[in-house]
Specification:
426 residues, mainly alpha, globular
Length: 426
């Protein structure tokens, strides 16, 4: 079996696993949101002066925070038992060294007023840190984590206020957002015909929304926000992984690269793997989501805590099982997504993400008996068909542009007048 065939089979397997895990996550996540809303509304009805919105009743931010926490615990388990190398370990060690040296310099400054020596310590410390850059810095990880946190929380809010099928029809617009993000961030401009092929996607989503029996503006704008945040996450993540690959030391062979992609390669020259990058992103997202949950839903959590202290506690075993299992499915499916992202273009990933929604929408309709109108079905079909056409158009023009570039390069190398012209100009 050739290397190309092996790589294609690996990518197809990753996409299949990613689809299945996403279906499991969305179903368990919807069950968790519905169970939490039922318990919160029942508790709020016992207090006449307590007002609660439909969105907040399902505690979407808190559930998202717990899901991040489940993933963070799993990642810390892998790091604790040395199953995977700890990311940013060298960077954190250098940071602690800088802080220690600067503190020593501050003490010397106070004791003997040796300002020059103290400033020299600070300058040398920062210079040593810049001479040993980390391939993927904590700043890169934090930037990805911000997009990931808000994208995931917007997705949960969209799912909490409407059906799974409606939320994922809205999220079918992600290829459009990814194309715009690739242009703004990476400077990648595609052929105008490729952009035109996205118009059926927009039309199909609009038709599906117009025919929805239970339309929700909160779900709509939350889904759009999720598209924007996840598109930026995909583009920035691709940039970070390409930087990590380009800065690979020359003494690392292909076997080491395969081990690094699985997260098993240790050493000072190890670039962060896609799975390990997502683990670090999840930990940062968990820390970011804690103040968000306390700020937006802290009053509801306090109300539930006071009622549980005054009365007998409700049986929340089933609800917790839904939340924890959805957190596990969410982490694993996103870890698989990050591995897939390192092997494909962000827009190709967005196209696969849209095809994945077919399975999610069908599963949601079957499990929750969601009524679907003719307009919604036709719109979803047009949107998904438009994504397929867009994928073919992009691949066609990418190959065409690559062939034209290679032919132009060969023509310049074979033409002796090119060298004479440059010599004359010089």
């Amino acid at each position: 079996m050739s290397t190309d065939v092996r790589n294609n089979c690996r990518v197809i397997s990753l996409f299949g696993l990613w689809f299945a895990l996403n279906v499991c996550y969305n179903i368990t996540n919807k069950w968790a949101l519905e169970d939490v809303r039922e318990k919160v509304i029942a508790a709020a009805s016992q207090q006449n002066d307590f007002e609660i919105s439909y969105l907040s009743s399902s505690l979407p931010i808190t559930i998202g925070c717990i899901q991040f926490g489940v993933g963070a615990l799993y990642a810390c388990f892998l790091w604790l038992f040395r199953i995977r190398p700890v990311p940013h370990a060298d960077e954190l060690t250098r940071g602690m060294t800088v802080v220690k040296r600067n503190c020593i310099g501050l003490v010397r400054m106070i004791r003997s007023a040796q300002l020059a020596e103290s400033f020299h310590i600070a300058i040398v410390s920062s210079r040593e840190r810049s001479n040993n850059p980390s391939p993927v810095t904590l700043r890169d990880t934090s930037k990805i984590a911000v997009y990931h946190t808000f994208g995931q929380l917007c997705t949960i809010m969209s799912l909490s206020t409407n059906s799974i099928s409606f939320a994922h029809v809205i999220k079918a617009m992600e290829p459009l957002f990814s194309a715009v993000a690739s242009w703004l961030v990476l400077g990648q401009v595609m052929n105008i015909r490729v952009y035109m092929s996205l118009l059926p996607v927009v039309f199909g989503v609009a038709l599906a929304c117009a025919g929805a029996k239970e339309f929700s503006w909160i779900s709509f704008w939350s889904g759009m926000g999720s598209n924007a945040f996840f598109a930026m996450r995909g583009v920035v993540s691709k940039t970070v992984m390409e930087k990590s690959a380009s800065e690979r030391p020359s003494d690392i062979n292909d076997t080491d690269v395969d081990q690094r992609e699985r997260g098993h390669l240790h050493g000072s020259h190890t670039q962060i793997s896609p799975a390990n990058l997502f683990a670090a992103v999840t930990c940062v997202s968990f820390l970011l989501s804690i103040p968000l949950a306390l700020t937006t839903e802290g009053s509801i959590l306090m109300m539930l805590a006071n009622q549980s202290a005054e009365k007998e506690r409700q049986d929340v075993t089933e609800t917790l099982s839904y939340i924890i299992s959805s957190g596990a499915f969410h982490y694993i499916n996103n870890e698989v997504m990050y591995v897939t992202l390192s092997k494909v273009h962000p827009i190709t990933l967005a196209v696969g993400n849209t095809a994945k929604r077919v399975f999610i929408v069908v599963a949601g309709i079957i499990v929750f008996s969601t009524p679907v109108s003719v307009e919604t079905a036709v719109g979803a079909t047009i949107g998904i068909g438009g994504v397929f056409v867009y994928s073919l158009m992009k691949q066609w023009y990418d190959i065409s542009d690559k062939n034209n570039t290679s032919q132009a390069t060969e023509r310049n190398e074979d033409d002796p007048t090119t060298e004479l012209t440059h010599t004359h100009i010089t």
